[in-house]
Amino acid sequence: MDFRRIEVIFIVVFAILNAYLFGSYWQYQLEAGTTSSSNSSENSTILKEMRNDQITYMPLSNKKMNGYYASATVDTSLKDNIKRLTDQSARVVDNYVESTLNEELTVDPKKPQKVLNTFVKNRYNIVYGSEYQYNPNLSTSVQVVYTQMIDGHPVYSKAGKLTFYVNASNEVTGYTQGHLVNEKQLREKSELISQTRAVTWLYQYNEIQNDSKVEWADLGYTNLLTTDNGVVYVPTWVIGIKSKSSTGIQVKRINAFSGVLIKKDHEVTTESSTQASGSTAASDDSSNVSSTETSESEATSASSDVSSTTNSTSPAKTEAGVEATTSTSTTY
């Protein structure tokens, strides 16, 4: 056999194969770059339209981020755990801790976390306090909010929230607490839409009034639907908007997977005319947050996504771009 001839044939074949693979790789890179460039150009155009409508915004990021569907359950053992708490009168109502401090705790209205961080981490003050982090976006002059975290991002849900109540003298009088347990990752991480894309889509949904400001846009987790095994949480861009016609900040939400508007708005009040007590706010969380509404179509889609091994992250807006409401709601 002519081994040298066979060797030459193999070299030629491998050279052709390498050239083909190299060409395919660069074609993919070119298409990806074209898509990215197109998205960037579209975002720039929309941001210019926003400025023309006198809408201002904080610096926005095009950074690609990842997230996953997660599940968690409401802690039903808080009644046993509050027994170790000291210097307060605490009780559990509907799986939420309601507590009044024996002595008020004075805080700096500009930086309340300086005092409260230490208080929260003490296991004799707060049950599982080390699991909560200060959330400046939800905090106001009358409430200081801490939230649990999923994958390093805050849980925007009453079930994972710790809320301190502050009186007119900047004294913390008490708190309410929800606690989530058994947090699980349901699927592998998938790419999310960027912060810039979320804000521009919110504008395209006509959810940002003229002459207003996008104060913040935070990636967090919000409850999507309730199952027999707990609550399913989805990565969500939570966006705070302040208009000149309102004294508070209106909060909007965009599904970070699909880009769909989640119709679950509420207003975070900045006025301090009404001071909430711990027990009152625990039973009526709508004093500064309205009820959560999730869509039937989104819930059905997520439910199938959770049990599916197919990974799809392409944006898919509904005809109206808005999620409808359904009975699977919980309090936000």
TrEMBL record:
Cellular-component GO terms for this entry: membrane
Bias-annotated ranges (Low complexity): 270-314
Organism superkingdom: Bacteria
Keywords: Membrane, Transmembrane, Transmembrane helix
Region ranges (Disordered): 268-332
One of the Pfam families matching this protein, by short name: YycI
Domain named Regulatory protein YycH-like: residues: 37-257
Chain segments annotated as transmembrane: 7-28
The protein's name in its UniProt record: Regulatory protein YycH-like domain-containing protein
